[in-house]
Amino acid sequence: MTARPPPGAGLVVAAPSDTEIVLARTFAASRRTVFDAFTRPDLLRQWHGARGWHLVVCEIDLRPGGAWRFVSRGPGGAELGHGGAYIEVDAPARLVQSEIYDGWDEGEARVTTVFDERDGRTAVTTTVRYPTREIRDGMLRSPMRRGLGEAFDRLDSLLHHHVRSTAPWKGHRP
Asked: Is 128 a member of any domain?
């Protein structure tokens, strides 16, 4: 019997500068498929969030200048909202967007996500740049690593089932 890896085991987290966090994980799917999972509300609702958290609002206007907004609901009815605007959309290779959490007055982050496919596997590398070192450090102390690791485990499972089915996503974009 093979031991199961701990939740979020494939997620790599680094802090290459005073204001940045880099998050990386590789998925066994094409970059188009992974990009769709990051940008389609019907797919995001299936994986986004830590265990026990689910998107109850998922609005995406996927174009430069278009807004996005997520609200997640978790244990005990707790809600967490955040959103921003897309700065760059280069499907299926790259997304750049602003991000700010509800009630967060410290300023918005800039999030750059790159989808790099090799041999049928897609490396997703997200660089989050915060306005200050203090904000970056606060995020590193938060349960972000656990939450994102669990979300990426959910995404990995969704992609695994999709790839095994060989059927296109319902409503697949060309």
From this structure: yes
Sheet holding 79-90, edge to edge: 12-17, 20-27, 121-129, 109-118, 94-101, 79-90, 67-73, 54-60
pLDDT tens string 134-165: 999 999 999 999 999 999 999 999 999 887 76
Q: What is the CATH number of the domain that holds 31?
A: 3.30.530.20
Question: How many domains is the chain partitioned into structurally?
Answer: 1
Q: What is the 3-state secondary structure (H, E, C) of the chain?
A: CCCCCCCCCCCEEEEEECCEEEEEEEECCCHHHHHHHHHCHHHHHHHCCCCCCEEEEEEECCCCCCEEEEEEECHHHCEEEEEEEEEEEECCCEEEEEEEECCCCCCCEEEEEEEEEECCEEEEEEEEECCCHHHHHHHHHCCHHHHHHHHHHHHHHHHHHHHHHCCCCCCCCC
In a domain? residue 59: no
Structural domain for 27, as ranges: 12-48+90-165
pTM of the complete model: 0.89
